[in-house]
Amino acid sequence: PKQTSPLCCIVVPCFNEEAVIRKTHERLLNVMDRETSCRFEVLYVDDGSRDGTFALLQDFQAAEPRVRVVALSRNFGHQIAVTAGLEHAAGDAVVVMDADLQDPPEIIPRMLARWRDGVDVAYGVRRKRHGEPVFKRWTAALFYRLMAALSDTSISLDTGDFRLMDRRVVDAFLAMPERDRFVRGMVAWTGFRQEPVVYERQARLAGETSYTMKKMVSLAVCGIFSFSIVPLRVATWVGLTASGLSLAAIVYALVVRLFTEQWVRGWALLLIGVMFLGRVQLMVLGIFGEYLGRIYREVKARPLYLVRQQLGFPEHNAVSRT
Ligand code: UDP
Ligand code: MG
Predict the structure, then answer these.
(1) Burial letters for 138-164: b for 16+ Cβ neighbours within 10 Å, e otherwise?
(2) Which of 19, 46, 122, 271 has its CA at 20 to 30 Å from residue 149's CA atom?
(3) What pTM value is reported for the model?
(4) Cβ–ligand 1 contact at 85 (below 6 Å)
């Protein structure tokens, strides 16, 4: 019956995952063999791993015709790796999943069931996070709430990049030309029918998170500045408030100067006023700079990533559409 059954491609970005990828592959194959409602394909994106990840992926590919591998020319980061995967993915539905088994592949059949019911995006929502430090949980919670408060696009709370997308959504996503890729926000923006699939986030099975503090902050900044112009408005409001305050200070200074004898005093106020305004100006400049930098990156229009090698693509001209 398989001739007409739909194709589902599972995209797995990998960066230095040699400790866990074998296990991931096993569990994925397991799920693929048990779920009979569609044909499967796994697309591993090697995001410039410096360990044995690529060699392992080569082995998987040699042993299993349903595996494809795209190796990027260097580490481009998770969001770009996901984008590269989506660009190379065939299929009527595409699933994006982390390589470290924090997103259990056993949830995929549930996502597929939602998809068959006509849902275009079935996104994983984490009910519990096992084995993640309190600090990460808190910063993540804070980030999701800040995003929700600032963003024009509503991005569901506690949602990562683990999701199933219909081909329509994938194509819409790929039609977005921006360099700054906040994948979950862009997918949320496309609309269509999006529904949550709740699961418990597992602890990373092995290896270490490569989301360092720096990467987490830059993802959060990307989420906010690429999806919201509220900071620019904040700049305006802060500017207005500051001008109100300085007007009051000016009036005060004039009154003291004209009607009292002690006008040399008040240098503290002067100093505070100057410092305060200086700070406000720098902050506002910083916000402008954040957007300016983004515009600069977009205008340069460099390719998002470069492919070093691809395995398991019979149609050898399936080259990236960067
Ligand atoms: N990843 C990637 N490129 C990177 C960093 C991470 O492709 O530069 C992959 C990584 O292999 C994993 C997923 O993105 O499959 C999520 O990364 P990680 O588990 O380190 O993040 P966390 O789950 O701690 O947020
Ligand atoms: Mg992880």
Answers:
(1) eebeebbeebeebbebebbebbbbbbb
(2) 122
(3) 0.72
(4) no
- Per-residue pLDDT tens for 288-321? 877 887 787 788 788 889 999 999 887 655 454 4
Q: Please report the atom of ligand 1 found closest to the CA of residue 209.
A: 20
- The ligand 1 atom at the shortest distance from the C-alpha of residue 15 is 11
Counting from 1 in the atom list of ligand 1, the atom nearest the Cα of 45 is: 7
Residue whose Cα lies nearest atom 25 of ligand 1: it is 211
Residue whose Cα lies nearest atom 1 of ligand 1: it is 78
What's the pLDDT at 141? 78
Ligand 1 pocket residue status of 305, Cβ below 6 Å: no
CA distance 220 to 143: 7
